[in-house]
C-alpha cells in the first residue's frame, strides 16, 4: 500500500449508483479517474463529470488490457447486482496485477469469494448503511460511524445532563465512558473540545467511544 502514490489514478468499473458516486467524488477530490461501463448511455451521461469514461465489457480481459487497466495501481469494482460479472472482473484485475482492488459485495458469501480471488478491500454498502440506520432511527444520533472493534464516532445533540456544564463538571468521561471530541455551536465552525468547553442547548457534539457506551450516553435523552 505504501508504495502507491496518494494521488494515483483510479479505475472505476461500473457506473451504477455506487460506482458513479465513487467516481464523482474522486473527481471532485481532483483525482484522475477512468470509469468503465458496458452501458453506452451511462458512459455518455458521466463523460462530462469524470475525467475519462470508456464503454467496455470488463468481463473481457482483452478489452481491459487495451484500455490500459493493467497500468492502474488502484481499481474499484462497482458491479454488485451481477455476482458473476463482479467475480470475473475482479479476477481479471488480479490477472492484470492491479495491486489495490476494492470491490463491492452484496452479501457475505459474495464478499468471501471476492477476497479469495484476491480483492484487497471488500465493501458492503447496503449492510453498512442498514446497520448505521439502526443506530439512527432512535433519533438520538444524527450520524454514526462504527469501526471494526466496537468503537464509534457519533454526531448528536448533547443529552440533557451535560448541557450548560463544561466537560469536567459533567464528567462525561468518568461517568459515561465516552469522549466529547468536538463541539459545534450554531453558525460557528466545529472546534475541538477541551475540559473547559461548555456544551450548550443548541450545540452539536461529536462523541467517540465504545458503541454500547455511546448508546447509553445518547439514551440519557433530552
Ligand atoms: P448499483 O447498485 O450501485 O447501481 P449495479 O450493480 O446495479 O450497482 O450497477 C452495476 C453497473 O455496472 C451497471 O451500470 C452496469 O452497466 C455495469 N456493469 C455490469 N456488468 C459490467 C461489465 N461486465 N462491464 C462493465 N460494466 C458492467
UniProtKB/TrEMBL annotation:
The protein's name in its UniProt record: Trk system potassium uptake protein TrkA
Pfam families: TrkA_C (PF02080), TrkA_N (PF02254)
Gene Ontology BP terms: potassium ion transport
Signal peptide: none
Source organism per UniProt: Herbiconiux ginsengi
Positions of the RCK C-terminal domain: 139-222
Coiled coil: none
Lineage: Bacteria, Bacillati, Actinomycetota, Actinomycetes, Micrococcales
GO molecular function list: monoatomic cation transmembrane transporter activity
